[in-house]
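Bit of a strange request maybe. I'm writing a small parser for structure token strings and I need a real example to test against, not something I typed by hand. Could someone generate the tokens for this chain?
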Amino acid sequence: MQENVLQHSKEMKRKLDYSAIVQSSSFQQLMNAKKAFILPASLFFLAFYFTLPILTSYSTILNQPAIGSISWAWVFAFAQFIMTWTLCILYSKRAATFDNMIEKIKQEIQQRS
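Reply from user aminoacidic:
Good idea to test on real output. This should exercise your parser:
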């Protein structure tokens, strides 16, 4: 049984027209949706991440006490952990949407063949 499934999977891979898949509107929608999330999230991450070393190297603004003897640099550094966790959670939730789009593409391919 498992051999038949593997054999069928190998045959499907040989028959797929990847150029047609890439040019399909469903695939283009998937790529646009991924770019619409990943690009801004990555740019925000990089800007937020590099702000700490830049501000600590070229200014003293983060040296001011925020809470007691804890400076704003420590608050900002802790905020980076929160930002990373938040982006991971957001991406995990958005990935479910991407997975649904991929399943739709796979169904379209199966209907064509």
